[in-house]
Amino acid sequence: MTQIATSLWFATEAEEAARFYCATIPGAVMGDIIRLPPGGPGPAGSVLLVEFSIGGAPMLAMNGNPGEGFTNAVSLSALCADQPELDRVWDALLDGGQAQACGWLKDRYGVAWQLVPEALPRLMKAGDEAQRGRVMAALMQMVKIDAAALEAAFNAS
């Protein structure tokens, strides 16, 4: 069976970024670090590829990016168990990064993330159209998502 992994291409920060994500995201795990052999396209022994996983999903961080930056066209979405987890992960990822809107941010490496509390997909699948509409309207006003405010919008009359 074919295995799919998300691959993030860095200039030289692959190991640093992988270690940062594993320290920041609950359940993330470092894997192998593959180094360049002599005669490779860079200094022998330097990091070529780092294997890690987030939430059981395989991830690769690779060095050698010729200058192409990350864009919002591809992002990592993290479903957080509760508001305290979302707040902790948001603050860590935002350190050196930039907040955007509706739970989106770019981290210090330029990788786009959307941090979502479990309440958002749950509320968007529940209730009636008016309730879901109020949740969406509340979400559109947020930078970091506030689960309690989404719940309040859903339950408003």
TrEMBL record:
- Tell me the protein's name: VOC family protein
Domain (PhnB-like): give its ranges.
3-116
Q: Which PANTHER family does this one have?
A: PHNB-LIKE DOMAIN-CONTAINING PROTEIN, PROTEIN YJDN-RELATED
Q: Which organism is it from?
A: Neoroseomonas terrae
The record's listing under Gene3D superfamilies reads:
2,3-Dihydroxybiphenyl 1,2-Dioxygenase, domain 1
